[in-house]
Amino acid sequence: MKLIMLGAPGAGKGTQAARVAEALQIPHISTGDIFRANIKNGTELGKKAKAYMDQGKLVPDELTCDLVADRIAKDDCSGGFILDGFPRTIPQAEALDKVLTERGEKIDFAVNIDVPDEAIVSRMSGRRACVGCGATYHIEFNPPKKEGICDNCGAELILREDDKPETVATRLKVYHEQTQPLIDFYEKKGALVTVDGTLPMDEVYKAILGKLGK
Ligand code: ADP
Ligand code: ADP
Ligand code: ZN
């Protein structure tokens, strides 16, 4: 199954994508994680991407589309994949379409996790990310067993620089201007499913599996 996750920053895309990927045994591909790994490793791509990410802006499509095309061409994606955080613009969605159409494939479902802006700022200020494995926690809604330490890998948990309220406001604006139009794009293709992202995590998860017919 080929899936994409849509939703505002902090809607719960990463949280749900990780669970669905495990349930369906398909790779979870997060462009945000790929960029952060590049920043950590000091690559050229990482240096370029960081400047945009720190400001809450999107990394340009030229730096993003080829990277995803290469990733989904890998063997582990032959049985499907979940894209988390891509596409984020109409040109990115068109580029993805082109790559898939050339292979006689298509996106089966675009899962839209619907959360109003009012709920986003508190979600983001409570989010903690693992510097080791990228796992995500929330100090109130999904705390780690030991404060500040990742359950999976034991590394440190941090508040992402771009999760501070000033940057979150910019990211929400960017979301509404550039990413929200994708809801219509996938609706027209008949691929859109929407779930209420304000529900507790387990309920959001069950709703998604239900919509996928699983
Ligand atoms: P969130 O989990 O809040 O949705 P991500 O981890 O997906 O955030 O993305 C963090 C940042 O990485 C974005 O604000 C943006 O700067 C950059 N980024 C991630 N994916 C893309 C993309 N598809 N196109 C452009 N920029 C991206
Ligand atoms: P995204 O990938 O869309 O930016 P995340 O999955 O990282 O979103 O979730 C953002 C924050 O909100 C994280 O701290 C996560 O633990 C928390 N979160 C995710 N889903 C829910 C939910 N249904 N209810 C409350 N908090 C949630
Ligand atoms: Zn970890």
- The value of Rg in angstroms is 16 Å
**What percent strand?**
5-15%
Query: Uncertain segments of ≥5 residues (pLDDT<50)?
Result: none
Question: Which cofactor or ligand species appear?
Answer: adenosine-5'-diphosphate, zinc ion
The helix-and-strand class reads alpha/beta
Strand order of the largest sheet: 2-3-1-4-8
| Element string (H = helix, E = strand) | EHEHHHEHEHEEEHHEH
CATH topology of the domain at 2-116 and 179-211: Rossmann fold
Tally the helices: what do you get?
9
Integer average pLDDT: 96
What's the CATH superfamily of the domain at 2-116 and 179-211, by name?
Answer: P-loop containing nucleotide triphosphate hydrolases
Supply the CATH architecture of the domain at 2-116 and 179-211: 3-Layer(aba) Sandwich
Distance between the termini: 11 Å
**Sheet of most strands:** 5 strands, parallel
The shape is globular
Number of strands: 8
> What's the CATH class label of the domain at 2-116 and 179-211?
Alpha Beta
**Fraction of residues in H or I helices:** 40-55%
Task: Write structural notes for this entry.
There is one protein chain. With 214 residues, the chain is of the alpha/beta class. 48% of the residues lie in helices and 15% in strands. The protein has helices at residues 13-24, 31-40, 44-54, 61-72, 90-102, 117-126, 165-179, 181-188, 201-211, and strands at 2-6, 28-30, 81-84, 109-114, 127-130, 136-138, 157-158, 192-196. Strands 2-3-1-4-8 form a five-stranded parallel β-sheet, sandwiched between helices. Strands 6-5-7 form a three-stranded antiparallel β-sheet. It starts with a strand and ends with a helix. The model has no long low-confidence stretch (mean pLDDT 96). It binds adenosine-5'-diphosphate (2 copies) and zinc ion.
